[in-house]
Amino acid sequence: MSDLIELKAAARKQAFARRKEAFAAGQGWACQHLTAALMRFGPAPLAGYMPIRTEIDPRRVMEGHSGPVGVPVILGPGRGLIFRKWTAQTPLIEGEYGAAIPQDGPEITPRVLIVPLVAFDRRGYRLGYGGGFYDRTLEALRSKGPTTAIGYAFSAQEIDEVPIEPTDQPLDLIVTENGPIWPRGA
């Protein structure tokens, strides 16, 4: 297990450096590609995220979604996420890890999630920050019905193979500034 922890830590360090460089270069066509990918889901409840550090920014796409949109709220270590309803006018406060969250508001249950990440591979696996929040959340949502996880990243964040463990939940689609990547040929 410690070997896997070390592998993930090394992969994160390299991916953060690549993401920082890509962030400085700008998002390019990423928003247009993400908007196009979301069209197949219509007004399905969507979860996005409020970007931190050098994460690619999905807010413009979230604002244009025709259905309800939520953003994640961390409830604590070892727990899944909840999603509070969000619009561009929603009052925000600082949440865990510096991410902005709605000050209050109703929860939504997303069927489609735009998922932040540190690195990804062509198999559809993602490397996050190490808290397991999205893995627990995706597992719970998928146990209750169809749920689509879309990784949103810069193409520079792609690595050959993300080190995985049995609890890691795969992405259904990855969208970068270069277009969509369908891991399982969907």
UniProtKB/TrEMBL annotation:
Q: Which InterPro entries match?
A: FTHF_cligase, FTHF_cligase-like_sf, NagB/RpiA_transferase-like
Q: Does the keyword Magnesium apply?
A: yes
Name any cofactors this protein relies on. Answer: Mg(2+)
- The answer, when asked if Ion transport is one of the entry's keywords, is no
Reactions catalysed: (6S)-5-formyl-5,6,7,8-tetrahydrofolate + ATP = (6R)-5,10-methenyltetrahydrofolate + ADP + phosphate
Ligand binding (substrate): 50, 55
Per its UniProt record, what Pfam families does this chain match? 5-FTHF_cyc-lig (PF01812)
Family matches, as Gene3D superfamilies: NagB/RpiA/CoA transferase-like
| Binding annotation for ATP | 8-12, 126-134
Q: What is its EC number?
A: 6.3.3.2
Molecular function per GO: 5-formyltetrahydrofolate cyclo-ligase activity; ATP binding; metal ion binding
Keyword tags: ATP-binding, Ligase, Magnesium, Metal-binding, Nucleotide-binding
| GO annotation terms (biological process) | folic acid-containing compound biosynthetic process; tetrahydrofolate interconversion
What the entry lists under NCBIfam families is as follows: MTHFS_bact
State the family it belongs to: Belongs to the 5-formyltetrahydrofolate cyclo-ligase family.
Protein name as catalogued: 5-formyltetrahydrofolate cyclo-ligase
